[in-house]
Amino acid sequence: MTEITNAAAVAGRNMKLFGVITIILGIMAIASPLMVGLSVVLLVGLFVVAGGVVRMIWAFRTGSLGRGLLTFAIGGLTLLCGIALVTHPLFASGVLTIILAIYFVVDGLFEIAAAFRVRPSSGWAWLLICGVISFLLGLMIWQQFPLSGAWAIGILLGIKLLIVGMTMIGVGSIARSNA
Questions:
Q1: I want to staple 112 with a disulfide (CB 3.0 to 4.6 A). Which of 5, 87, 131, 172 is the partner?
Q2: How far, in Å, CA of 60 to CA of 26, rounded?
Q3: Of 22-26, 68-72, 80-84, where does mean pLDDT reach its minimum?
Q4: Phi-psi category of residue 148: left, alpha or beta, with phi > 0 → left and psi -120 to 50 → alpha
Q5: Domain boundaries in the chain?
Q6: pLDDT per position as a tens digit, 12-57
Q7: How many angstroms separate the CA atoms of 114 and 111, rounded?
């Protein structure tokens, strides 16, 4: 029984530590929103380029010409999309701003639903608050588009990191006190 209690205490302490790290990352993102926004766009672009190249290489291992050509074409299209993201980061930041707005709205709705699902347990209010704020951030981005751009990605991602960090600290404190 003490091993389980010790494991819960360690898990709570680790969650609090990761929460503090997440808060620090959020502050850094808010302090330099344009750099963070464009960095996110470039990183996503590089991942899409890599995915396109891998898919094109994979096309040669499919075993059939028809399936191989289709896989190669999709890989080529993926590669072109990645190159477009990397070479036109401001345009791509607009597209990612829309995706980020949708993400925050959907993430917020799921966090709100999860909060009501675990409602009797302690810490459910943190999840609810995080969900409501995520939902509202998504709506704010959507309403400010096209004025919101790369800076919105950086600032709102920073705010989201702050909220997630606070949630992790709150849940970690509860887990540790219950241990």
A1: 131
A2: 43
A3: 68-72
A4: beta
A5: 2-35+89-178
A6: 788 889 999 999 999 999 999 888 888 888 998 999 999 999 999 8
A7: 5
Length of the chain (residues):
179
Q: Do residues 150 and 93 make contact, with C-beta atoms less than 8 angstroms apart?
A: yes
Taking the C-alpha atoms of 132, 147, 156 and 138 in order, what is their torsion angle to the nearest 10 degrees? 20
Closest by CA to 85, choosing from 28, 29, 120, 46, is 46
- 86 burial via Cβ count (<10 Å: 0-12, 13-18, 19+): middle
Instruction: Give pTM, 2 decimals.
Output: 0.61
Cα separation, 20 vs 161, whole angstroms: 10
Alpha helices (H) in the chain, listed in sequence order:
2-31, 33-59, 65-87, 89-117, 124-144, 150-178
Locate tokens 């929460």: which residue? 19
Task: Read off the pLDDT of residues 128-163 as tens digits, 9 standing for 90 and up.
Answer: 998 998 899 889 888 887 766 777 778 878 988 998
User: How many Cα atoms within 13 Å fall on the side-chain side of residue 109?
Assistant: 7
